[in-house]
Amino acid sequence: MLNMTDIMETITMIQEENLDIRTITMGISLLDCCDGNPETSCEKIYKKIYGCARDLVKTGDGIEQKYGIPIINKRISVTPMAILAGASGGDPLRYAQVLDRVAGDVGVNFIGGFSALVHKGFSPGDRALIRCIPEALAATERVCASVNVGSTKSGINMDAVALMGAMIRQAAERTADRQCIGAAKLVVFCNAPEDNPFMAGAFHGPGEPDCVINVGVSGPGVVRAALKKAGPDCDLTAVAEIIKKTAFKITRMGQMVGNEASAKLGVPFGIVDLSLAPTPAIGDSVAYILEEIGLDVCGAHGTTAALALLNDAVKKGGVMASSSVGGLSGAFIPVSEDAGMIAAARSGALTVEKLEAMTAVCSVGLDMIVVPGDTPADVRAAIIADEAANGMNTGKTTAVRIIPAIGKDVGDELEFGGLLGSGPVMRLNTASPSKMIRRGGRIPAPVQSLRN
User: Fold this and answer.
1) 20-24, 120-124, 198-202, 371-375: which has the minimum mean pLDDT?
2) Secondary element (H or E) of residue 38
């Protein structure tokens, strides 16, 4: 039960501190859409998605109006399309186009699941789909792609890592006239979760129900405001408690919205992902939270420790508010989508190497980082390998979403607009890892993979 104080506090969070439901994402299984005829399979895909999601946007808008809670995105995630491409055959581009068409017809912002899971090896459908990703992302507006190249259980598929180093560049090249947006819709994962509601990495895992509603909440501005009110004299134990209590309130709102959407759509409620997802709006920044904790600027020594405190406290507060916490859950650090991260990167205080260290303790990985367009493919692949090794050995999800800025160099910028923001081209260490990348094969799983 909410009392008047809770209600007024929530109103303040929404109006002054950028609190929102970042996304309601409907996950849909397309396994029953496989067919020996690719055209028939595409028809089944359209009918299945449209039948499940035709009221998704209307329902989200209704909840937003009823409670006054902003719901920024309505999205869909589907079964990794490499599975259907392998079973039904045909040109993978057809599947991307039908996904884009039905996403437009039901009115969602993005549809995720043009994906392949290749952490232990490739099937013919996986290879075909991965090689089609650059063309698919250039030819569609709403489709997002992801590839899982490693896991704690299986190790890292270095052949897939090398391939993705090339695909990222091609995705950027094919959309160079649109600020290289193709690469911004492509994520390379290690330990990809099956129930992630956030794009561009969302897909509906084979272990998920036929149809499910997942919710992603966000409130970096709320956390920062709570710390600011507490003042500079709190010790770090008190800081962690403030963050926990704030995360509890944010997650409780997400749980309420998820339950309501589930009931109205007649679809099971899945999870609340309580990741603190920032935006380019001033005040809605994870970097500013870290600075409120006590850093002069994000990227200074101490940043990793502050982020570890934040991430842990967010998760502890969230699990007390909901028994259905899932997805990624924690703190995102996408450079172009976070005003504080953008400022720190522009000043030189935040480097790619520091971001890699930070990813050892946060939710995802090297996210929305703009790099020089002439970065060699083996360097891009090595960045993916480093981040996958981080995830494999910590047992957490890590990811890489880097955007080669075609025709641009360090100091230039790309402007994506909207929630994707803008990003300065960041300097990379270009010493060659090509011998290692050319070896291919698989980096074996660490010994903790044998815990069974």
Assistant:
1) 20-24
2) helix 38-53
Distance CA 293, CA 307 (A): 10
Chain center to CA of 284: 17
In the numeric block, the tokens 């935006």 are attached to 279
Name residue 71's beta-bridge partners.
21
Q: Are residues 268 and 182 in the same domain?
A: no
Q: How confident is the model at residue 402 (pLDDT cuts 50, 70, 90)?
A: very high
Residue 452 lies in a domain: no
Residues 117, 190 contacting (CB under 8 angstroms): no
Q: What are the tokens at 133?
A: 């990703």
Direct distance between the N- and C-terminal alpha carbons of the chain, in angstroms, rounded to an integer: 42
Average pLDDT over the chain, rounded to an integer: 90
Q: How far is CA 178 from CA 93, 138, 169, 174, 183, in A?
A: 20, 9, 14, 9, 11
d(CA 173, CA 384): 19
| Whether residue 287 sits in one domain with residue 154 | no
Residue-level length of the chain: 452
pTM: 0.91
Q: How many domains does the chain have?
A: 2
pLDDT score of 4? 45
CATH of residue 104: 3.20.70.20
